[in-house]
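Student: Hello, beginner here. Can you help me understand the protein record under this note? Any guidance would be welcome.
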Amino acid sequence: MNNMKRIYYLLSLAMVALVACTHEEEDLFGDSSANRADAAINTYIEVLASPSNGWLMEYFPASTREYGGYNILLAFDKEGAVRVAGEIANPSDVATSLYAVKQSAGIVLSFDMYNTLFHFFSDPSDPSGIGGTGFGLEGDFEFLVLEASAEKVILKGKKTGGLAVLTPIQESWSDYITAVQDLEAATVFPEFKVELNGETIPVTISYRTLTFTYEEDGDTKSQTASYIVTKTGYKFYEPVVIKGVTLSGFTFDAGDQLFTETGNVNIKLIPVFPPINKQFVTGNWFIALSTAGPFATAYFNYVKGQYSTNSNIQGEVLQYAFMGSLLYGAFGFNFSSSGYTGLLTYNYTLIGEDKISLVFAMSGQGDGVWYHNYAGFSYFLNPFGYSAARIFTLTTDDLKSPTYVILTEDANANNVIKLHKTPVYYPFDN
């Protein structure tokens, strides 16, 4: 075979091999990736729309899960509409918007039209009043679909990486939400202790996160467990191990007013009721103009007038004001004025079990100092103690579950301020 024929022969062999390989690849990958993605999308839409009564979504919005979990009810149709309800609203409230299932580095479920109930968790304007303007609860509105079947859908937040589980719900949405809200209302306790293996461990609570603090091997350790409220108790996002014991959640016993561990009835989570002055500095207590005594009312009315006369804040609205540590983690006077939040920090001394000494610490966070300097908020502080400390006696309606606390200044009987556990919005009008 001469050289030219050899070249043609080798080229022919190469072409045969190429055709053979191409044919084999078509057998193995007979459909395009786009077609496979479209098929998966159609399948997931069918799954999402299949339950006749929709899905229960257990949702932990922040990547740190520091705000705990929330129950959301979802009903999808095949045309791209979704109905949403949840425990953050009235049991009968339903908001309808659009959704999409699409290809984006995986199959993604996107709530791409604003929904007042679902985007409550991702809205940076922070409708919850918890996370702060610009952050909110730091939730997702786009989720990678990890698993989808008639029994369960598992989603992963594209931003936070947190998992959300959807399971079909059979009962009435409003009945389910009412049951969850009722249990949460019945379990508003300031702190706990847990009994396990013959030991008692203190447990604090912030939002829907329990913190267990204990000694082990000579060191002080701390474990956190974020939970969602169910109809029967608290369900953890993931189990935690405390001194070799695994805890996955707790079931509430209304009769005994305590919790037992979901898998071990011998482990108890027991509410603890501190003195009222300690509950005051560890809680959040909202101001209402209508429940302030004459001394405080005069100062509060001055600030109310600033919203009409002070060009720095004209047009703004005071959304809420409270004594506590919810916004910035330090105790003091907190507020939100048309979305601008701030803290003016207070020093305090607990006296016995029902007295407290309060004085402004001359510091603040967020927009607190600006409102102090330019919006007259120093007048808000005076009844609580401004340049000099004021000593108050505290009273309440129920030490186990207080709905209010009344501060009465020892040196001035006219300085009486009733503060409320339930948030009071627009305090100048309430």
